[in-house]
Amino acid sequence: MSTAEETAGGEREPWGEVAPDAARRLLVAAVEAFAERGYHATTTRDIAGRAGMSPAALYIHYKTKEELLHRISRIGHEKALEVLRTAAEREGGPAERLGSAVRSFVRWHAGQHTVARVVQYELDALGPESRAEIVALRRQSDAAVRGIIEEGVAAGEFTVTDVPGTTVAVLSLCIDVARWFKVNGPRTPDEVGALYADLVLRMVGAKH
């Protein structure tokens, strides 16, 4: 898929600000290769070939395969966090905001399912420093969701006895969409987002 094309969710690929064009093409090729074969089974030759470049040309832009994965992971997590926060910080009560956050987060993971699979499931391939940076971004997503649930409990709108555990469950549901979503499947990203928002609100015992 071209970086200028829209995904299943009608959203742009997250690499628009990556420059020059050759570096962006390599990121797109790496995402496709990692999603299809896994990080460890993918070689730099595979990535360069998909991008229509020589293996030597790859090293002009990225020193190692891990640097490629780190760049992909950072951009992907930043975009997903932006989507989540925008929805979580909208006006409205806890139930409305939690539903909006889940709907948007799920829609992103479905619409960007190829990117999201790499971003969410290849974390252990990163070195300690890079992994720590990505874990910090993930904690921010956790905090955004946990904050809404805590507000809902304090306001008497949610019935949740274990806020941290419920937060993990909610995020796990959202993220796992990237693993199974298919463009030609029975539901669109919007439909999956709406379904999961309803399920999560039932999970927290939201009072409508």
Strand percent estimate: under 5%
The N- and C-terminal alpha carbons lie at a distance of 41 Å
CATH level-1 class of the domain at 65-203: Mainly Alpha
Biggest sheet layout: none
Enter the CATH topology name of the domain at 65-203. Answer: Tetracycline Repressor, domain 2
Calculate the mean pLDDT score and round it: 90
Number of strands: 0
Number of helices, where a helix is a run of at least 4 consecutive DSSP H or I residues: 9
Give the % helix: 55-70%
CATH superfamily of the domain at 65-203: Tetracycline Repressor, domain 2
CATH architecture of the domain at 65-203: Orthogonal Bundle
Order of SSEs? HHHHHHHHH
Question: Which stretches are low in confidence, meaning pLDDT under 50 for 5 or more residues running?
Answer: 1-10
Shape: elongated
What Rg do the Cα atoms give?
A: 18 Å
Looking at how many chains there are and whether they match, the oligomeric state comes to single chain
- Category from helices, strands and their pairing: mainly alpha
Describe this structure as you would to a colleague.
The chain starts with 20 loop residues before the first helix and ends in a 5-residue tail after the last helix. The chain is mainly α. Mean pLDDT is 90; it is low at 1-10. The chain is 68% helix and 0% strand. It is elongated.
Summarize the helices and strands and which ones pair or pack.
Layout: H1 21-37, H2 44-50, H3 55-61, H4 65-88, H5 94-111, H6 113-121, H7 128-154, H8 163-180, H9 189-203
Helix pairs in contact: 1-2, 1-4, 1-6, 2-3, 4-5, 4-6, 4-7, 5-6, 5-7, 5-8, 5-9, 6-8, 7-8
